[in-house]
């Protein structure tokens, strides 16, 4: 009788734990590289708190590569949460591919310039200095996401060097620009500061001058038809929480969470 009572008590204690385990979700996430460093720092804490498992892949917010978030959704990949450039996410929400009421700004990041480790750091302190540096560079690389679109379509024009750099500047699809610079395939590379910081073998020269800088907002949202909608919403809330702000800031971005400070 005593054994039965003890066993009953043990089972009674175990049932809530089993129920929690049974309710644990597996969430499939696709994130832009711009938020990758912060996400990698935050994901283990979310898993620890919730018991959920995050299965994560990476892809640009736009473009035509198979890894790009829009391409993944178009072919019906089972994704629960996307983290990507804000205006690109807004477009997906308008198309009904992301639940509009879950769109949540997380952080913003400026564009920086990098050179290969050990190379001289060029002057980019002013618009004119940046212009001279780009004209003197033998090769220039930029991403196929938001920062690269801006570089190609607007920055070169604003500096008046669009024709002069056309033959030596190229967009890099589905690869970190820092990696291209690190192996010597480009003398100068442009990308979000948060995407350049984790790359070994490069040195970050600095951010673009303020009057030609473009800040990109990264947002998260739940994919329409998510198989784990409540857990997906919880992840979005966590990434936007004040508790996430320190990791976001350490990655080179400015958190947009209310009360996060700067």
UniProtKB/TrEMBL annotation:
<dbReference type="GO" id="GO:0015689">
    <property type="term" value="P:molybdate ion transport"/>
</dbReference>
<dbReference type="InterPro" id="IPR050682">
    <property type="entry name" value="ModA/WtpA"/>
</dbReference>
<keyword id="KW-0732">Signal</keyword>
<protein>
    <submittedName>
        <fullName>ABC transporter substrate-binding protein</fullName>
    </submittedName>
</protein>
<dbReference type="GO" id="GO:0030973">
    <property type="term" value="F:molybdate ion binding"/>
</dbReference>
<feature type="signal peptide">
    <location>
        <begin position="1"/>
        <end position="24"/>
    </location>
</feature>
<dbReference type="Pfam" id="PF13531">
    <property type="entry name" value="SBP_bac_11"/>
</dbReference>
